[in-house]
Amino acid sequence: MHELSIAMSIVEMAEEESEKRGGLTVSVVHLKLGRLSGVVKEALLASYGLACEGTALENSRLIIEEVPIVVYCPHCQVKSTLQSMQCFACSTCNAPVSEILQGKELEVVALEIQ
pTM of this prediction? Predict the structure, then answer.
């Protein structure tokens, strides 16, 4: 389960940022998670709890914003959101698409600190 190593990296990064700011307590970590990131949201949430045990983030929460898959269609020059990961076709003209504009994200976007 690679989600545990990802969770451990998130905790480590948040601890480093907390130390830079004088040891403030991190209460919430906000994460953007794209549908094509290869990370299972539920597994990451469970792993985050394990990764936080015995650290300064032990009582913190992980809030995950799921990012949809947005593609660009060169045929009709439209951005569209895919309804399914199995069908990479433009929702306007149904042409195959390969340019992914968003949906691969795995990034910490904010920390709530006290």
Answer: 0.87
